[in-house]
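If your schedule permits, I should be very grateful for your opinion on a structural question. I have a record of one protein: its chain in single-letter code and its fold written as discrete structure tokens. Kindly check, if you would, that the fold set down in the tokens agrees with what the sequence suggests. I remain grateful for any guidance, and I place the record below:

***
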Amino acid sequence: MRIAQVAPLAEAVPPMLYGGTERCVSWLTEALIEAGHQVTLFASGDSVTAAELVAGSSQGLRLGGVRDLTAQHSTMLRQVRHREAEFDIIHLHIDLLASKLFHGLEGKCVTTLHGRLDLPLTQPFCGVVTPMPLISVSNNQRLPMPAGVNWLATVYHGLPPQVCPYNEAGGDYLAFLGRISPEKRPDRAIEIALRSGVPLKIAAKVDPIDQAYFEREIVPLLDNPLIEFIGEIDEHEKSGFLGNALALLFPIDWPEPFGLVMIEAMSTGTPVIAWRNGSVPEIIGDGISGVIVDSISEAVDAVREVKQLSRRAVAAYGRSRFTAKRMADNYVQAYQHLLDHREPVAADVTKPMLALEQRESRPIALGTPVVVM
């Protein structure tokens, strides 16, 4: 296939530091190329890829201090629209911004929604039933959306094995990795560490919008020898940070659409202690690759429980479900379904979803949502 991947311009593909969506676009792009597809990547000019790179900006805009990306994204989308005849599939990763511009091309366009869909600012978009075929990154992510949305598939993220290699030894500290914000609940992570008596290392960025929260709520909690705040780390540092941990703490207080750090930790063999929110029950094998909890007390108990889990079993669980190859294969199946039917496919998320094994055993009828795990 001739495939266009259209990435956000906030970060390079892959990101130099933080950036989940751009990282997934990178892994997907390279896996598609390895599978023999011809890929054009629309992204920032400092991206690194084996695909044809079309620069929508000279560099990732977040590190350049740009916050409103609307103008740059609009310019890039016009480039994509101008070249649409060159592609069999146009895969967009910038939410619903492109929906109107690509009206009439829904038979070859698909948008993966990477973010949460329950916020007040996103609800006006959720209330609009767009003909654009949409892909969710978890089943839970879909729940705030209205009936009649053109869901094409659910495709979980996956990573290459070399990104977070297996670490047999592990370590003796708890890890918190990602972003400092109220919904990520670093305060919970700190309380778990203090109550369990196990050191905690926090590797996280602080966005300007969260600076006041960080200084008011988190900084006063860092004055304890068990707590170490590292700050934002890069891809190379992340592998060692996760692989050398006893467990990853994922104490979220929001409906996380996916949670990339969970599969990164599992890839290294490090189990995850995660709150029962959002996609967590879809990603973590409770008692196999981690422990799902509902309270601080349960999380403290889980710190003891994860010591009994096999790191090899943790890694095997993650790598049986969340690889870049599997992600790319599942996307190709979704692309092919779209091309075969050449019309949007509606799905009702209140009904049971079609498992991959079921879908392989019989053909998909027109109108049946493709659901690939």
About this structure: The chain has two domains: 2-159+324-361, 174-319. The CA atoms of residues 187 and 217 lie 8 Å apart. The two ends are 22 Å apart (CA to CA).
